[in-house]
Amino acid sequence: MLEHRTSNLTGLLLPLADRNLILPNVAVAELIDYQQPGTFDLDTPPWYLGLVTWRDRQIPLLSFESACAQKIVIGERARIVILNALGGRPELKFIALLVQGIPRSCKLDSQLSYVDVPLCPLEQAAVQVGEQVAKVPDLLALEALLVDAGLTI
Question: CA 60, CA 38: separation in Å to the nearest integer?
Answer without folding.
Answer: 10
